[in-house]
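Let us work through a complete example step by step.
Step 1: write down the sequence.
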Amino acid sequence: MLAKEELLLIVYFIVVILFLTSFAIIFFITFQKRKNKLLLEKIEAEIRFENELAQSKIEIQEQTLKNVSWELHDNIGQLLSVANMQLNILSGTVDASAKQSVQDIKEVVSNSLKEVRSLSKSLNSEVISYTGIEASINNELARFERLNNLKTEILTEGESFDIIEKDSIILFRIIQEFFSNIIKHSHATKISVLIEYLSEELQIEIKDNGDGFNQEEVKKSSGLLNMESRAALINSKFSLNSVQGEGTSLTLKYPLKPSLYEENDTNR
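Step 2: predict the structure and record it as tokens.
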């Protein structure tokens, strides 16, 4: 009889231990799920905050560039136009010996006016949105050829399609930053641009034949980080490759789907 009671007691303790163990496991799993959910919500909140902050910075930068564009077009452009008209009047009153000098000055002023208008277009986000990224890149390359004796080429493959307006501005600003680095540092004599309209993405590849650089030495530079963060903001793949003595290439892959930038606007 005693052995039977001891057996029942042992069974009772086993059942209690199994119950407590099961409860502890369920509690631990529930706790971990809740913890993971809170961590995920925290990470998502941080991402939203970073995207909002980046978006606000870009909006401020774009407004500043737009103001500069207006100043160039309305004020400096207008002054150059007036100077050009006055030179036209002057060329009819001077003698033959001075006419060539006036004509040379007039040509310089005319070229300066063209450059101001071209630069104004590349700074104004409204113009970029209206003309599209391909035309904006063409405008920038033409400006480089006029100013820097730089050979450029642009090739387009596939059937073109429209992309989100704000995203096109960000893509162009990334490309502008890369162009700027080429002009300042690479000593390149040629820039090649390939724009591919693929079924699921827009791919833009830019190459120069410049000096190249050691990527390990410049990977933390502000310009590179700025380009990478802008690409991440529109959910685009960013790839920069450079070999010393062989030039540098940039590849951007923009997916044909709602970007983080657009989603943030929708959630407002």
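Step 3: interpret the result. The two ends are 75 Å apart (CA to CA).
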